[in-house]
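Researcher: Structure for this, please.
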Amino acid sequence: MKARFIALITGAVMGSSVLSAQSNDCATMAALAYDDAKAKNYEAAYEPLMKVREECPKYSLATFQYGERALEYKIENAEGEEKNQYIEELIGLWEERLELFPGKTSKGKVYSDIAQLRFDNKLGTVEDRYNAFDKAYTEDRENFKSPKGLYAYFQLMVDMQDEGERELQDVFDNYDKVMQKIEEEENDAAEKLAPLLKKQEDGEDLTAKEKKQISNAEINLNNYNSVKNALNAKLGARADCDNLIPLYKKDFDAKKSDVDWLQNANARLSAKDCTEDPLFFQVSEALHQLEPSANSAYSLGQLAEADGDRTKALEYYNEAAELEEDPNDQARIYYRIASNYKERGSFSQARNFYRKAISSKPSLGNAYLQIANMIAQSANDCGENSFDKRAVYWLAADYAARAARVDPSISSNANETATAYRGRAPQKSDVFQQGRSSGEAIQIGCWIGETVRIPQM
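Model: Predicted structure, token format:
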């Protein structure tokens, strides 16, 4: 019995020693491999890294991080079949990292990176490449954020439709979900940007981290704006009324009791302003009778507005805004309501609805720009003296500048507008002559009711 106990103790000690030795071996191998990788000597680092990955896969996440860089180097410097082998090896490395380190790895990013690699190197059929992106979207939509990947996801659908492998409706469906994802990312970036811009506009000092956050948010907004433009260009004539009306007209009688179909047709016809054809009224009326919704109410508002009944149109638009759950579509409705009030000269009401639009969609730069224009138009009516009246233009310029920062698609026009308004505001000599100073607050009256500070000059 004693001999058996001693054997068990001896075995445990020896087992512990073996594990310790294995751990030391992994640490030694990894240290040597990591040193070469840190020095960016990926040619030398490649084989040691792959050995660590094979023999000690769970040793450290760094093995996969450095291994990715080494394989990207190999891919860049290889051709033909050898290059394809390294590509497949990199895909395997990403998948293995996801399996071994799931808590430190984004599934959506891994799948989109794999899809992008196959797309860039034309591996597999068009459908294979599309399915790779679709996997990223369906399995981890939240983390499928790559602007380049989102565009490729849509482009591949268009390519399949061009080859007769998909219907036009499939293209529209894919466009809608990709565009919705992009707008969500834009709103997230703009929402993070807004308090930092306010802090900057108020003359407060920004930390290095905050400056970096502003830079990153603006880069993201520019990238997503470029993708939106590319998506619309790719969709092209497929989405014009000449294609949409025949597409939906041929199915209307069979689908006029199908709420999902009516919602889709209504949204697409409304978005493209295909509202003059009788089909639009048929679709809108049928949808509102079956299931009153934001889309059907909005469409009936469009029809009332076209008939010149602006009061009835606003009733429908407000109903649509209350029913709408999607923030981007809600912003579109609020913006239209605001524009109606603006055209009537009801600037205070218009601003209220432009602000509601911004609240729903923080990246809606045009709403900021419209507020800027209304403020500028009211300069002569909203100040007690000449200096204060001209000071209104500083506030208008601030709104226009904000429009440029949150929405790159209008940045050129918005920045030009901001510059023009600053040119109408008091200049340095005016501030001096009035005995005013930078940072001094000026309360603006009438419908505006805001405070603007004299900028640093």
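Researcher: Any notable elements?
Model: The chain is about 75% helix and 0% strand. The beta strands are 441-443, 451-453.
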